[in-house]
Amino acid sequence: MSTKLPKVPAVIVGMGWAGGIIAAELTKAGIPVVGLERGKERTTNDYLMGHDELRFQHRTELMQDLSKETITHRNNPNMRALPMRSYGTFIVGDGVGGAGSHWNGQTYRFLPYDFEIKTLTEEKYGANKLGPEYTLQDWGMTYDEIEPYYDTFEKMAGISGETVEMYGHRSNPYPTGPMVKTPTFELFEEATKKFGYHPYMIPSGNLSENYTNPDGIARGACQYCAYCENFGCEYGAKADPVVTVIPVAKETGNLDLRTHSNVTQILNDGTKATGVVYVNTITGEEFEQPADVVIVTSYVFNNVRLLLNSNIGTPYNPETGEGSIGKNYCYQVSAGATTLFYDDKSFNNYAGAGALGIEIPDFAGDNFDHSDVNFIHGSGIRMTQYGNRPIAINHTPSGTPSWGAEFKKQSIKYANSTLQVKSQGASIPHKDNYLDLDPEYKDAYGMPLLRMTYDYTEQDKELVKYMAKVTRKIAEEIGADHYETSEEQAPFNVNVDTNTHNTGGVIMGADPETSAVNSYLQMWEAENVFVIGASAFPHNSSFNPTGTIGALSYRASEGIIKYLEDGGGLLV
């Protein structure tokens, strides 16, 4: 039996980047908010002297417990989906801050092309550039409309970077300058400029200098300790909801943050949500929290799963194309990299930061002509220096045994003598890549798990082949003793593939027939439910998603405030 609590204006499900931004903006506007987070409270004190690769990287302390909740996966509908039992592809955050605590910090904007991808592709290449099986669609808003929100997010987070002319216009420069350019990046820069490309330092949520944001939050600069990915930052130098927006919300006195609170259902009367049900993960007690507005801001998979388990929105049917919940699941394409091995040259590969890198934009979006290739969009071509931690990073030439004396010998030899020219490609939606509920497997509370049906498409494979030639050309210009290029895209493997950027399932658009939410991320079929996060992306660009999640969160905040002030109605 649930304990029914007093009604509140707004309840937020998940306190990561999206939830933190929404909480800060609503509470600053004087709106009382309940924030529900299934994990525990976290502060920078939890990470003091926490450079523990085994604890955080391999035992995934900051992540969702897969023994209690996971996803199932199959490559196509003819396969049986099986649960993901260990983290490989996805690292789903757990606790206050969510994935915003353990992310690397790479903070791009998507291209103007991304937001009108269907229209612009068909105008330039015709309606038959891709087959009808690719469910490409515009986002229901333009880059010019989202640009001010990108600017707000970057100022709040103190993003470090430099202006790139091949991207959309900027109303302001980045609030802090780019990170340091290491000797390895100078090699990349020199080689790419010889081909006429345009290298730039990757925009970073790791502060390049001390910074105080518009809310008065002061943070210190990055110390390049190399413990960003899968780690919380003990210095607060990495932008994190815990050290930026959540303290602002708490300071207002209008945020009731409840940790260890796992939301299992959104209650609704058939047209609107009436509140949520959540379980205290420590005591097992169940509570009903009524609310005027329900704001879903958890991870992509959890957003979709919660809606499906709550019977809110129409589930996507891949056979008919009808429905939108679960539609257009996308990943990213990371094959096509070239690894450089040096026999007699070494670098300081153990120093770094999560967003320390250099990239060229020349092969992203429609920045190059696609008339004679069998794909659209493209890749960022980059070299990064995250910092090679000693347990798991052992680059050795192919053919080296995976254990034993020879493995140790080659690991030591190339520990500081390996570089990579990498490719991170866009993911275009396909009718057979989608999310739904698993008919067999359930979580610790008896709720059906989310089932992913996904594999790489012909579009992905063609993109990889093309980008492999680019990374190889750049690598050969840099120069090394040995080169290895990943030229073919293997089938998707949920336990092996390592890109963590998942999008779609509750996609945005201008048409209720083909999308789940409008440009304020308000559900067409339940007007007082807002679903914020990368689940709203109709496709996935070649860039990391956090900057776009942040921008959409600020826009959604405006919409939610207006909705509450006006007493309801669909936003336009």
The general outline is globular
Chain-averaged pLDDT: 95
Span between termini? 40 Å
Q: Let me know the number of strands.
A: 22
Architecture per CATH nomenclature, i.e. the level-2 architecture: 3-Layer(bba) Sandwich
Percent helix, as a range, is 10-25%
Q: Report the structural category.
A: alpha/beta
The biggest beta sheet is recorded as: 8 strands, mixed
Q: Radius of gyration in whole Å, from Cα?
A: 23 Å
Q: What's the CATH class, please?
A: Alpha Beta
* Number of separate structural domains: 1
Helical stretch tally: 12
Protein name: Gluconate 2-dehydrogenase alpha chain
Family: Belongs to the GMC oxidoreductase family.
Pfam family, one: GMC_oxred_C
Domain Glucose-methanol-choline oxidoreductase C-terminal: 429-552
Question: What are the main properties of this structure?
Answer:
oxidoreductase, flavoprotein, eight-stranded mixed beta sheet, six-stranded antiparallel beta sheet, globular, FAD/NAD(P)-binding domain, 572 residues, 23% helix, alpha/beta
Compact summary:
The protein has helices spanning 17-28, 53-58, 99-102, 112-115, 117-125, 143-157, 183-194, 245-252, 300-309, 405-413, 458-478, 546-566, and strands at 3-4, 8-13, 33-36, 71-74, 82-83, 200-201, 211-212, 218-219, 255-258, 261-268, 273-280, 286-296, 327-330, 338-341, 357-360, 379-384, 418-425, 434-442, 448-453, 482-485, 503-505, 529-531. The chain is built from twelve helices and 22 strands. GO terms for molecular function: flavin adenine dinucleotide binding; gluconate 2-dehydrogenase (acceptor) activity.
